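Appendix B: complex inputs.
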Amino acid sequence: MQRIAFQGVPGAYSDVAARRFFGPRCTTVPCESFEDVFTTVEKKRASFGVIPIENSLAGSIHQNYDLLLTHPLHIVGELHLRIEHVLMAHASASLETIRSVRSHPQALAQCSGFFRRHRRVKAVPYFDTAGAAQSIRESEVTDTAAIASAFAAKMYGLKVLKRNLENRPNNFTRFLVIGRSLCRSRAGTRMKCSIAFTPRTNQVGILFRVLGVFALRDIDLLKIESRPDPRSPFEYLFYLDLEGSPRDEKVSRALEHIQEMVTQYRLLGAYPRGKGNFYGAG
Amino acid sequence: MQRIAFQGVPGAYSDVAARRFFGPRCTTVPCESFEDVFTTVEKKRASFGVIPIENSLAGSIHQNYDLLLTHPLHIVGELHLRIEHVLMAHASASLETIRSVRSHPQALAQCSGFFRRHRRVKAVPYFDTAGAAQSIRESEVTDTAAIASAFAAKMYGLKVLKRNLENRPNNFTRFLVIGRSLCRSRAGTRMKCSIAFTPRTNQVGILFRVLGVFALRDIDLLKIESRPDPRSPFEYLFYLDLEGSPRDEKVSRALEHIQEMVTQYRLLGAYPRGKGNFYGAG
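Resulting structure:
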């Protein structure tokens, strides 16, 4: 049976993403930090890890890009998960008996409309959504609820009081699957590559020339992001996702070409494109 | 006296950024949400607002880009603030008496090394860093501390037990100053522009051609980021920061030129570049 590492408490959205990707029969391994997810996979205590990389409201998670750059692991897959917040409590509780709701501050903020409509209900910060759900089961109270995934409600035997508590429906997280070996592309699968690099100079137009490497070969770009390099002040680090696999000759030539123009370069992985995008979930 | 709106509790890092930018004699106006910051400035209950836009570890705050696109305000300045977490408690407390520490889960995670080194100290989640500091003053306990800004310690009359609690020193947040009118450029000031746009098609190479508009005019790019458009599935929204002001002829021509190639376009603002970058703070 495959063991899949994720950061958080059982029932966390990363746990949901791991089970969605690998099927309900995989064994998921909770880790304390994102760094622990990488180490768990590296030390072969898990076959793969699943980490969030960007959220449609909150942005990219730079910390996980940093870990991808410093650990010898590869991206082997991706998954888009819609974040649907569920209000859950003990079987004997109801919307009327609830006086406080525990969750991660970000989840509470994403459900601020609910708290405005229910003035008597107090929002209580918690470390994580699934941990809040777990705490309800352990304490057996009827005046306290949690906001977490529907899966967490099932896992901790809690009653769903209300679904889709979030203010905005466009809340998607893209997760990456990381493993020890590069993914092999199969015929008929639409692949994408993720690379990270630092252009050789701060010359005006260097990025234009870098993108020319792909544009002049008709290779489509799916994501681009620049960020000051945390390890090297005054330099920029770029993340690029592009369509295709290094097994395609034009992609492999483009990836060789780009290395002539950069100081740091890393192929983070080549993997099948997740179904849909942020808005047509997998 | 200038009134400056920010999101959070007095003493929050946004409050610190506002005072750093406008000087210690400005009056800062706490708001519940980022949206409230925009509304407060729009309704002239404050002259300006100060909002975080990206963090060196966590990434861009898309929500604030969305608000910039939907509200009729402009970016008129920027500031880079190093996030230095301070451990603070009552005057009679000491590192030895502390058993629990309150703060926002993200701040607690950024100080995880401290909790590993002090196993008897429990991390307790709180809505925000400054709110945690405020709660300590209100309850007058000696076994509980908070992690917040040095400014919050001063504001709530708490003793600083330890500075620089963060695991990683490279924790910077870039804040934007927003106002009702476009900023006027002064001679001798290095200006930058922020724009947001959606390319006209998903054609391969469209971004290359868009960047050509700037590269072929020797205009330097300072930031680029793409993101699925939350209001329009299957389209990408781009954020671009570039050097110069629309008062420079080549910049003004480039901004006209780019509008031929995009469906949505917004000049978010033109403003003096903040001193340094993420790593040479202002």
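Chain A touches chain B through 51 residues (CB under 8 Å).
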